[in-house]
């Protein structure tokens, strides 16, 4: 597996895949470590999380540079991502003990049912490249706190990140086998899910990958959490602060070069302010500086690979063939997988087209006649991960919260994940939740203990 710098096209490193025997040995280590880690005091688990937070903070520059080299995000955004991991480790270290308090329920027949949260075993995480540290940390932090152990199948192009995450565990003296980065390809995942030594699986990725993993987990009767992305709506109503909405709509499409599951992709703007929004939005997107991700003045680096750029180009061509108009979005010459920020207008309200998740710095812009039309456009696709709504009208806000089909809604701000709050979607954006106490409990056994 090769790591390629998407800013230059140059090879960074080659990583050797594990053999079947090495995978088997890793599963044995995970099983042996779980047998002892599950019995540790909560204080020992939270202390390890605090130590991990310190390690990530102390090595933030080195960690961030690897992410920039392997998948092209700007160095400043990579540093923010590492800091977010630090926050997640600290959050579960501080709040974890309270999350593990089960409580007691009185029974009408007499006595009580005491509730106890217990770990379930090794959890396999199949993770993507777009936020290579954060996607893993939001599984790893609750995994450690719960008393489980983690196995990581990271994306092939960010194996350097996976290796550094395992190195951080070693630096803080974590038990061998508590977290293992497995350099494997997708073809090896099914056998690991089927293995009796693995208790559950979590995946962040494409709909096809989610369907495959869900089928494999279903055959093995194992718990699975899926976060499968989507084409999130970003709805702007006449009462909104238009300048603030435009600014955040730009960030939504250029953050991580548009390679984010929950940043708005479909800008749905009320007809009364559509022209004003488009004028300001086009000007702001044209001003985005694309270039060297290590340059502090750069707003947006390359896409993660040449293959990803081709995918975005094909999506643009498909929409233009259907009648859409592209403003900006030009492919840049020279080495590197660069593309300028752009806007697609006049996109047909065809669910198949609107449901395209453009994983790049291209926005789709739609005109809505009224709030009912805006909600109808938002819900017309088979996905429902996040959403962002812009209004100062309380009645409109209540409608959006109730009627927009999504796992998350941000009001007058761009949606962003946080360690404290549950993260996940509905419809074909997946099921289950990460983060917060609910993410912790997804991979725990809630045992009822009946007492007289």
UniProtKB/TrEMBL annotation:
Protein name as annotated: NAD-dependent succinate-semialdehyde dehydrogenase
Top-level lineage group: Bacteria
A GO term for molecular function: succinate-semialdehyde dehydrogenase (NAD+) activity
Keywords annotated in UniProt: NADP, Oxidoreductase
Pfam family, one: Aldedh
Domain Aldehyde dehydrogenase: 2-449
Organism encoding this protein: Sphingobium limneticum
Similarity comment: family membership: Belongs to the aldehyde dehydrogenase family.
